[in-house]
Amino acid sequence: MFEKEYDVIVVGGGHAGAEATAAAANMGSKTLLVTMNLQTIGQMSCNPAMGGIAKGQIVREIDALGGYSGVITDKSAIQFKMLNKSKGPAMWSPRAQNDRMRFAEEWRLALENTPNVDFYQEMVSGLLVEGNQVVGVRTSLGIDIRSKAVVLTNGTFLNGLIHIGEKQFGGGRAGEKAATGITEQLVDFGFDSGRMKTGTPPRVDGRSLDYEKMIPQPGDVVPEKFSYLNTLVLAEQRDCHMTHTSALVHDLLREGFDRSPMFNGRIKSIGPRYCPSIEDKINRFADKDSHQIFVEPEGWHTVEVYVNGFSTSLPEDIQYKALRSVKGFENVKFFRPGYAIEYDYFPPTQLKHTLETKLVDNLYFAGQINGTTGYEEAASQGLMAGINAHLKINEEEPFLLKRDEAYIGVLIDDLITKGTEEPYRMFTSRAEYRTLLRQDNADLRLTPKSFEIGLAKEERMKKMEEKQSKSASFINFFRKTSFSPDEINPILETLESAPVKQSDKLFKVFSRPKVKMEHMLQLDSVSNFVEEHQLNSEVLEQAEIQVKYSGYIEKEKNNADKLHRLENVKIPENFDYSKLKSLSYEAREKLESIRPTTISQASRISGVSPSDVSVLLVFLGR
């Protein structure tokens, strides 16, 4: 069946596997995607959404590099929101609700229409290795398929074990079997492995819910999109809704704690800190008698609903009884109960920054196999693994992104240098250069790099160059053009901003905190320039951000330089971290447990952010 040798074999068709396949194939590698079920390529195993805090920046970076996630998200979106819009641009994070079925369908069709991609549906049970180099895979039917490189993106399937109360059974996802054989072989090669846990909420019938008792959560009035290409903006959107748990709900959930696999010792692995189960939340935050529940539709036409905030592995009867006591869920009908899943992962310190393993040449790991959680984190790793697999077998230089170039660079550097003992999730606080790493400029940062290695296409590069040229021209206009007090003071007066007494450059007055682009457009000189040069909203936004935040960006670079110079500052042996209230809860917990001896060691601990390190430096007088 497989007489020829492939350039790259990708194992697994989730977000990491799909992006790895697309990247390698689009760069010219003959690529085979082997997955256990071709109907679940690009499956949203958990919530039907893409993006969010820092995750939205990652999706835009994937798109800027020529990946597919942004385009697929735009094609299947049912709602769009730009989160944190009230804060500075470094915090703006796009998020979309998606039609789950359409999302997977669009991924399947996109890959089928990508040249150089072949598909095969079967479980990979082992790797073919000669010397210390991978040369292919072996399937459960005993078929050997040879290749020059292999990318493993096994998600939660490696020896997956599903828990619902006291019941447990093998599986990589609800309704799908676990993958066996690979972990044991890799351990024989000398790899360290571990176990992690994640969970998912019940899925329910939306027809059984009373939305009148809930708070509507509409999308943005003027929605944006993810891709820098010409995908369509949503013309209509579906609402989500919000409700809350109560003290009664918590009491009902506690009735099942003695049968909870989390509390009776059946689950021994660590779950995601920032997406805890409902039982974990009411146990850890016992002082709170209410938690938010977000009611998210699974698509345009389906009645299936995702109960965000109610992830659980409690017995199904407890789940049902407790959820019926949530406002709006009094008559709820279940499609399926929530569950927890344990699976194998491999500590990512065993990888190079290219995501190639240190022990076996031409073997790459991407996604949850590396200890991460989230579609976006997985997709970005798949993209980078696919790129680097192609470059390696063609004897070209590796493609690496630094911490000041992309959130993807921060993610991979954190994994490789710090490792992780719990599912890793990206946050803006993990990036010390987040003013540079905004969602609006991912194309300016990354498209030229991707175009240079042959992934980003000419259409994408031309759009980026036009945006860059027009933005630079507009900013230069502000630097060179003067205003008169007579024309600017009426505007400043409405903003309660101090009037000016003499003419000056537009750049200076635009730099004021209260002055926005909408105010500058009231000036004839500005509006005429915009009309004459046909500047779109993307260019206007880019120019405004660069004018207003140039000083902050420079300051951020200087602070990062100082941090590098002070990496070897010693921490006293019995230092009391509890007295530093500015440290995050996670940082205090990790620092007390690990007791690093230097700032350098502290900075490499997973969960200790750059801002936490800065707090330590200030306290130590540095």
Briefly characterize the structure.
By secondary structure, the protein is an alpha+beta fold.
Describe this protein's structure.
The protein is built from 20 helices and 22 strands. By secondary structure, the chain is of the alpha+beta class. Among the domains are: 134 residues, Elongation Factor Tu (Ef-tu), domain 3, CATH 2.40.30.260; 96 residues, Arc Repressor Mutant, subunit A; 54 residues, GidA associated domain, C-terminal subdomain (DNA polymerase, domain 1, Orthogonal Bundle), CATH 1.10.150. Strand 7 and strand 8 form a beta hairpin.
Using brief descriptors, characterize the structure shown:
alpha+beta; DNA polymerase, domain 1; 6-stranded antiparallel β-sheet; 18% strand
CATH class of the domain at 203-336: Mainly Beta
Proportion of beta-strand residues: 15-25%
What structural class do you assign from the helix and strand content? alpha+beta
Q: N-to-C terminal Cα separation, in Å?
A: 64 Å
